[in-house]
Structures are given as structure tokens and as C-alpha cells.
Amino acid sequence: MTSRSMESEIKELKEQQNVLVKQVKELQEKIEKMEEDSIIKLKPMIEDHSTYQDFYNRQEWLEDKRKQYPNELLAYTKKDEGYLLLAHSKTESDLLKQIDTLLENNTISQEDIVLFDS
Amino acid sequence: MEINFKKLKESSIKFDKKLRLPLNTLTINTGDLQKTFSNFISDIIETESGRKFRTTLSEVLIDTGNEAEYIVVSAYYLNTFKEKIEDIKVEKRMLEDFRGNKRVTEVSTKIFDFRIFNATFKSRIGFTYQTSINALDIINIGINAIRQFFNIFFPVNTENYYYCDNV
Question: How large is the ipTM?
């Protein structure tokens, strides 16, 4: 191959590279635009935001308890506007024993709703 | 109000292994109404010494570890379901999870119409007698029950990856 033809091939490759760079840039812009659009597309899925806020608050509270008691089962109940941890244990039987004690001591009543997590 | 998913991703808590949703995200079609599962109080649960308490359905879990083609809740809600939704007929089935754990489950003979966000899907509902205590307040949606619209959780051009533990 002569140096002239090599130069011509390099020039051609550079031109191809420029085209590809331009295409990548265009695609990136398209993706960004689609991400922006996805906000609008997903909007109708969520109808009641207060529900999500309550859910988020509960999950945040639970996440904090999970960090305090890693790999443990949790029993809790709703109290006023928040939540109250009733018991935590590594085993179901122990957790139920703790609930039993709380019922025996009238710390909770039969009417209280007990929720669980881990 | 609109949700900016990019912002949400930056500020959200990481819920490892569990894809949970608020309870009233899921509704069931009862003919002319879409009913939520709020105030679904369980039957009485007894401790070993006979003391009694109740729990309630409180959240929805999309469970990729549950390969059932139906929604699963604890059998403690069968009576509540009969009272609030419909006096359904059930048949015994064995539900086996990906770990090979087998659970006796009463599965509705009827296929119900459910709605989650704006998507609808058809599913039976199973009431299982062997539920971990931490799943007593969860509506567990098996992966095959929602395969038909699963792409709503993976919107185009986002980077969401979920793995849900079988509880």
C-alpha cells in the first residue's frame, strides 16, 4: 500500500469516526429527552400521593429499625401518627412469646393490630 | 403533582431485596367497583398460651421468588375476603417456592381482575396456611401473575434492578 493510499484510508476512517461520534451524541440527546418524557408518561400511574407519603414514612421508620436489629423479625403497631416497636427477635416463636407477654401485661390489647416485618 | 424518577432515585431509601408498594396500589374488580384491600383484618391469631391478637394487610410485595401464577395471602384472611369481596370457592394446591419449600394453599377457582397502577391483570388468589410471620400483613404477587405487564416496573431508559426475596 502506498503512503498516499494509506493517507486516504486514514482520512476516510477519521470521517467515519466523526460520523459515529455525531451519531452517539444524537443518541445520548435522544435518551435524555426520553428520560424527561418518561416523567410525563408515568405521571398518571400515581393517583394518591398521600398514600405514598404514608408508605414512605413507614418504610423509613422500618428501615431504621432494621438497621438497629439486623436480621431480626419485628412486631410493631400504629400509635398516634407514627409507629411503635413492640418486639424484635431472631425467631418467630420468641417473637410470639414477647407478644404474649405484652398481651398478658395489658401493654397491648386484643384489639390492637400487630404488624410484622424483618 | 408529578414524580420525577431521577430525583426519586437520588433521594429514595434502598429497600434491599424487597419491591414493596402501598396497599391501595392494588385493587380488585368486584363487578362494578374497584376495591382496595384496606381494613382487611385477619382472623384471630393465637399465641401458644392462647392469647389472641389480629393483624391486617398493610402492603403489596412483588415477589420474584414466588413463581405462582396467583396472588398469595395468609389463610387468616380467607373469611375477610369472603365477607368483603366474594364468597369464593377454593381448592387445595401445593405452592412450592424456588427453595423447594412447599405450602398448602387454598386457591380460588375463580380468576379475578386485579389492577395495579393503571395496568390490569387476571389472577387467582391463594390463601396459604404456612406463612412466615413477617409475611402475615403482605399481599404477595407471584411473578407469573403479573408477567403480562411487568415492563411497567422497568420503564424504558431507567436503571432499575429489583430482586425480591421470598418471604
Answer: 0.76
What is the b/e burial string over B59-77, where b = at least 16 CB atoms within 10 angstroms of the residue's CB?
A: bbbbbbbbebbbbbbbbbb
Give the span between the Cα atoms of A92 and A57, in whole angstroms: 26
Domain that holds residue A9: 3-45
Q: How many helices (H) and strands (E) does chain A have?
A: 3, 3
Helices (H), A43-110: 49-68, 92-104
Which residues of chain A does B53 touch, with a Cβ-Cβ cutoff of 8 Å? Answer: 99, 103, 108, 110, 112, 114
Residues 69-128 of B with CB under 8 A from A: 117-118
Q: State the CATH architecture for B27-153.
A: Beta Barrel (2.40)
* A87 in contact with chain B, both atoms CB, cutoff 8 A: no
What are the tens digits of pLDDT across the range B8-24?
555 555 555 567 888 88
The three three-digit cell numbers of residue B31, written as one number: 363487578
Q: How many domains does chain A have?
A: 2
What is the SS3 assignment for B146? coil
At B111 the three-state DSSP class reads coil
* Closest by CA position to B80, among listed B21, B139, B123, B130: B139
Residues A40 and A85 in one domain: no
- Side chain identity at A110, as an amino acid letter? Q
Q: What is the DSSP letter of A112?
A: S
Q: Angle at the Cα of B61 (from B55 to B66), degrees rounded to 5?
A: 110
CA-to-CA dists, residue B135 to A90, A97, B60, B123, angstroms: 15, 18, 10, 20
Q: SS3 of A34, please?
A: helix
A110 at interface of B, judged by CB pairs closer than 8 A: yes
Whole-prediction pTM = 0.71
Could you report the per-residue pLDDT of B90-129, keeping only the tens digit for each?
A: 999 887 766 677 778 899 999 999 988 777 888 899 999 8
